[in-house]
From TrEMBL:
<dbReference type="InterPro" id="IPR003718">
    <property type="entry name" value="OsmC/Ohr_fam"/>
</dbReference>
<dbReference type="InterPro" id="IPR036102">
    <property type="entry name" value="OsmC/Ohrsf"/>
</dbReference>
<dbReference type="Pfam" id="PF02566">
    <property type="entry name" value="OsmC"/>
</dbReference>
<dbReference type="InterPro" id="IPR015946">
    <property type="entry name" value="KH_dom-like_a/b"/>
</dbReference>
<protein>
    <submittedName>
        <fullName>OsmC family peroxiredoxin</fullName>
    </submittedName>
</protein>
Length: 152
């Protein structure tokens, strides 16, 4: 048996459903569940929060991987990544810029903290690399009679 055959691949993806009223209910391919909230005073995640959460989680995990690659993981005690952004003032609706704040605690100088953050953001994090790129979208649309390519 080859080593590639031993690797388990985690299913990825999510499905959001909602009715004529209410908010989306999202289920991941692995059974994770989250209900979306959009009211300003409601506790919970809205779609932009999920985008920021994905980026912050990916960068935090990637910082730990970067510390390991640099041989300093044993000196790392804590990583926190806060992500926010600003919406573009014009159409189409989108985030114009992300604000990313790393807190990397451990026995490091500023240069090492910077290198950990750089590796995490520039090379390791799939989410940041995807956002910075221009991924292709394949869109299909289904009705009661089945799936159709978008625009047909």
């Amino acid at each position: 048996m080859s080593s590639a055959a031993k690797i388990k691949v985690r299913p990825t993806g999510a499905t959001a459903t909602l009715g004529r009223t209410g908010f989306p209910h999202v289920v991941s391919e692995t059974g994770g569940v989250i209900d979306i909230r959009t009211g300003a005073a409601e506790a919970g995640f809205n779609p932009l929060d999920l985008l920021y959460a994905s980026l912050s989680a990916c960068l935090a995990m990637s910082a730990r991987i970067a510390a390991s690659r640099l041989g300093v993981l044993d000196r790392l005690t804590h990583v926190s990544v806060r992500v926010s952004g600003s919406k573009a003032p014009d159409e189409p609706s989108r985030i114009a810029g992300f604000n990313v704040e790393f807190e990397i605690a451990g026995d490091f100088d500023e240069a090492m903290r910077g290198e950990i953050a750089r590796l995490a953001e520039d090379e390791i994090c799939t989410v940041s690399n995807t956002i910075k790129g221009q991924p292709d979208f394949t869109v299909t649309v289904a009705g009661a009679d089945g799936y159709h390519d978008a625009g047909t």
